[in-house]
TrEMBL record:
Protein name, UniProt field: P-type Zn(2+) transporter
Keyword set includes Metal-binding: yes
Record has ATP-binding as a keyword: yes
GO molecular function: ATP binding; ATP hydrolysis activity; cadmium ion transmembrane transporter activity; metal ion binding; P-type zinc transporter activity
Enzyme Commission designation: 7.2.2.12
Subcellular location: Cell membrane; Membrane
Top-level taxonomic group: Bacteria
Class of this enzyme: translocase
Cellular component, GO annotation: plasma membrane
Catalytically driven reaction(s): Zn(2+)(in) + ATP + H2O = Zn(2+)(out) + ADP + phosphate + H(+)
Domain P-type ATPase A: 155-254
Basic and acidic residues: compositionally biased ranges: 18-32
């Protein structure tokens, strides 16, 4: 039992890279819409707009004599306060916390400056449009977060508990482990549990993104968020409401933005340096022309400087880039791919090599006996009964395959001196004679002679010896997953090189690799051998993602740039340790995850290019006196809104 009988270390949690929080303005607190309605959010802007519109009417259309002096100033101040006060308050709080040059500070001095030179309508208009832009940004962020939460948090608040044989509706959070809950057809499961009914079909789309129903049998795990599709079922609760798999997934995705991408970190650091520079440049625009311009007017150059300040606000970059990454994480979640942070989206976009395990990753991990080859002098039925009895001592997939092939174990067979030999197989004494079941290394260790070249057999072999004689062997094969071939084809189309590493027989690994079109495949590998192979790839200065079952191969996952775990629904450890979790075991989600990373990065750089290009043009025009506050508003709020619309686009893409 080549791969199967080897003992591999348990995977230890992979330490996630951490990043210091941005020491400056963070949009999150200013973009919290709370429980406010759309009308409540826009009410200050509506009031400001009404007073501004009336003021402009009095000023330029009706030209009322009384609308002048302090009355005109007070009127525009009333128009300014609903939208301006929250921004000035944020600027003041930022200064208290040591961040002087925030975007709030820029907007504050630009609009207060406009008032100081008598440009009241423009001062109000700039702050009004800026505030409206902020509201739209807040709504976009809130919607993105709520979309992901709604996608994942599919649990009903109440469940039906069977108490003393009678159904009773109770709050899901109050149900104890071990209680029995009843799930009707069409109902959504509120807690993780074990199926007590003989069989049931479930829609698992909320957890995996997979529309095909999953059939569960008695004793199998069922998870919160699954929808019962047929008969009434009974489930024994195995985890508290807050400890359910869905709770962990939800918490992980909500915390995903804590892992910042390098691009995101750079932009935030850039904004921190960039903002004070433009403030000093604005000061220079105001004062320096005095020494070089003959007809210097302080008011004109101050106006240009104020326009320059409004244009220079880095809002479009600071909000649209995190939103773009959050959209990528949401797109992954919708397709059953859990991405633990925006840094992993960047890494996925640049992956050059995907190294994969064989069993359970590209194959089903469900073994079946293919052939039985015994020497003619042995009674096949008798030997198989003894082998089945011995293998019943193990929970190994190969033991399960033998049990499925032979049937129920014969409990009358007396096993003595049962021993598991790590990496080789099992040994026991039956009827005073020694029975060996395992790989051919086991037979070599006990000096059992055999006239058989097993190296060329492409299946996994189970060798059997009884009473110091070679009995024969069983061939056991795993089934290649339906979408495994398509996965390799898509990875090649993305320009990603594939390699297969496995502890299984080299002949078996080579055969599977040949069927899938994987050029480099290596078998008979111990965990340290896999590490050495991965080091060889990394020595070429190429990025590597390793795909495995998430609960072993810890050294390889730790060494890889991105660790991808298959079968997130099977093990809590996968959620805790892997960088990417593919929930439905489909390898085709690997190229999909890479594509999501590439599309996210493309959108982020589109936003960066758009923001810099528009701002650069309008900054030059503003400094030259060719752009007014209105162009400045477009450069700031308009570009921010365009960037946000581009960022949320990824959540509607089909991959």
């Amino acid at each position: 039992m080549e791969e199967c009988c080897s003992t591999q270390p348990k995977k230890q949690p992979k330490k996630q890279p951490t990043h210091p929080e941005h020491e400056g303005h963070d949009h999150d607190h200013s973009h919290d819409t709370g429980d406010k309605t759309v009308f409540q959010l826009f009410l200050p802007a509506i009031l400001s707009f009404v007073f501004l519109l009336l003021g402009i009417t009095f000023d330029y259309w009706l030209k009322l004599d009384w609308f002048s002096g302090w009355i005109r100033l007070v009127w525009y101040l009333i128009a300014y306060i609903p939208v301006g006060f929250p921004v000035l308050k944020e600027a003041f709080q930022s200064i208290i916390h040591g961040v002087v040059f925030s975007e709030f500070f820029l907007m504050g001095i630009a609009t207060v400056g406009a008032f100081s030179i008598g440009e009241y309508p423009e001062g109000v208009a700039v702050m009004l449009f800026y505030s409206v832009g902020e509201i739209f940004q807040a709504m976009a962020v809130t919607k993105a977060k709520s979309n992901i939460k709604a996608l994942l948090d599919q649990r009903p608040d109440e469940v039906t508990v069977i108490t003393s044989g009678k159904p009773q509706t109770v709050k899901a959070g109050k149900v104890n482990i071990g209680e029995i809950i009843q799930l009707k057809s069409g109902e959504k499961l509120g807690l993780d549990g074990e199926l007590l009914s003989e069989k049931a079909s479930f829609n698992t789309a909320a957890l995996t993104g997979e529309s095909k129903p999953a059939t569960k049998i008695k004793g199998e795990k069922v998870l919160a968020g699954m929808i019962n599709l047929n008969t009434v079922s009974q489930i024994k609760v195995t985890a508290a409401y807050e400890d359910s798999k869905l709770s962990k997934i939800l918490k992980m995705v909500q915390n995903a933005t804590a892992q910042k991408a390098p691009t995101e970190l750079f932009i935030r650091k850039f904004a921190k340096v960039y903002t004070p520079i433009v403030v000093f440049l604005a000061l220079g625009i105001t004062l320096l022309p005095y020494f070089f311009v003959a007809d210097y007017l302080f008011r004109d150059w101050l106006y240009r400087a104020l326009v320059f300040l409004v244009i220079s606000c880095p809002c479009a970059l600071v909000i649209s880039i995190p939103l773009g990454y959050f959209g990528g994480i949401g797109a992954g979640s919708r397709n059953g791919i859990l991405i633990k942070g925006s840094n992993f989206l960047d890494l996925l976009a640049n992956i050059q090599n995907v190294v994969m395990d064989k069993t359970g990753t590209m194959t089903e991990g469900v073994f079946k006996v293919q052939e039985v080859h015994f020497q003619p002098e042995f009674n096949q039925e008798e030997i198989l009964s003894m082998v089945n009895a011995l293998e019943s001592q193990s929970t190994h997939p190969i033991a399960t395959a033998i049990h499925d092939f032979v049937g129920e174990s014969d409990h009358s067979i007396l096993l003595e001196n049962v021993e598991e030999i790590a990496g080789q197989g099992l040994k026991a004494t039956i009827k005073g004679k020694e029975l060996l079941v395992g790989n051919f290394k086991l037979l070599d260790q006990f000096s059992i002679p055999y006239d058989f070249n097993h190296a060329n057999i492409v299946y996994t072999l189970v060798a059997i010896a009884y009473d110091q004689k070679f009995v024969g062997y069983l061939t056991i094969a795993d089934v290649i997953k339906e979408d495994a071939l398509l996965t390799i084809q898509k990875l090649k189309a993305l320009g990603v090189k594939t390699t297969m590493l496995s502890g299984d027989k080299t002949a078996v690994v080579k055969e599977v690799a040949a069927q899938l079109g994987i050029a480099d495949a290596f078998g008979d590998l111990l965990p340290e051998d896999k590490v050495n192979k991965l080091k060889e790839i990394k020595a070429l200065k190429q990025s590597v993602a390793f795909v495995g079952d998430g609960v072993n191969d810890a050294p390889v996952v730790a060494l890889s740039d991105v660790g991808i775990a298959m079968g997130g629904l099977g093990s809590d450890a996968t959620i805790e340790t892997a960088d990417i979790v593919i929930q439905d075991d489909q390898p085709s989600k690997i190229p999909m995850a890479i594509n999501i990373g590439k599309q996210t990065k493309k959108i982020v750089w589109q936003n960066i290019g758009l923001a810099f290009a528009v701002k650069a043009v309008v900054l030059v025009l503003g400094a030259g006196g060719l752009a007014t506050m209105w162009e400045a508003v477009f450069a700031d709020v308009g570009v921010a809104l365009l960037a946000i619309l581009n960022a949320v686009r990824i959540q509607r893409m089909t991959f």
